[in-house]
User: Fold this.
Amino acid sequence: MFEQCIIKHDGKIQTPDFPVIPYIEGDGIGAEITRPTLEVIDHAVRKAYSGKRKIQWIEIFAGDKAYRQTGEWLPADTVTVIEKYLVALKGPLATPVGGGIRSLNVALRRQLDLYACVRPVRWFQGIESPLKKPELVDMVIFRENTEDLYCGIEFMRGEAETAKVEHFLMKELYVKAIPFPGDSSYGIKPVSKNASERLVRASVRYAIEQRRPAVTLVHKGNIMKFTEGAFRNWGFGLIEKEFQKDCYLEKDAGQSPESGKICIRDRIVDAFFQDMLLNPARHSIVATLNLNGDYISDLAAAMVGGVGIAPGANIHFETGRAVFEATHGTAPDIAGQDKANPTSLILSGKMLLEHIGWQEAATLIQRAVEKMFQEKTGTSDLFAQTTGARMVGTAEFAERLRAAIEHFD
Ligand code: NAI
Assistant:
């Protein structure tokens, strides 16, 4: 009955009724949040489809658990299994200290070419926010996932290779702008037309499918003209070529939106940080480069309650391959204390269900989370400062979610 893969055929995800989906438990709080998340997802699926559909979870390994078993942080098998089964759920992974692999998360995304990191950010009633009108926050961030400074092409001050890089820059390319030659480290920032275009394409397609009103391209193109500036220009060029009938440019429309079309705008990243706080409703979909996206998504999460509730997915939209994961890390400071908030991973699980077309089960999870927060029931990261809240541990929170799902019509 099981052992069936989800596949992508004719541009559409095809999900059998009993798909196999791999999961990585994760390090630190990983075990505490992953197990309850699987249970909540199973519960929602059972409730939605009365046993006619069921996920067969298989555990695959990365991080501490993999290292203990195989001596490798990210065994090749793990990547192969995700390739085979198309989608996976992943708990947070610690970045091993010392040489070798820089970040398991980055390595996994790059090996599977999961080029878009998709992070929806919205406010839930009942959650305290530093904003006056948090209900205006409903944005989806598309962060480019494969290049930029995250490629790890770095050269340390004082090393022989660094001297070569510096020599090449100064003597062959006649670069005069290095303030302290001989005393500098270097980092290289590859930004390609291909990666920029596919990310922007995915964000605009998503906006069309989800009937979102606007896409904002965020960059620092005024300073980094050939990388971030090129991202902006390639993005605008692509939109003009492929989406002209669906979109209009903010600068052409003035204050009057064109009905039914998507407004395309761009913002310099520093100005964007101010704008997303002051005018969050203006930015429905955000498409940006890797590093900007990292900063923006944590600020966006803080606007609505913190990383404990912000879900995320890493997706290759054309192959359908995707890894759904909490946006936070392993939280070593609270690991093993039943304090971790599992919502981020649970909502990532909800995104997984949407991705495979099981919308009914996804909606049940969404409604249950909304109910819990409306009743001010949640973990201490959300409700420690809230009067009248019911603060619960990780396990009890998940149990109450399952009970809420059970009682829905
Ligand atoms: P972190 O996200 O683990 O923790 C930052 C703060 O947020 C801590 O105070 C922590 O207690 C709190 N926090 C995080 N998740 C929480 C949750 N679910 N419920 C309640 N509170 C939560 O970031 P940090 O400390 O910088 O990184 C720890 C490790 O995680 C590092 O090895 C890092 O490389 C890794 N990491 C992994 C990520 C991933 O797997 N996608 C993402 C970010 C970091």
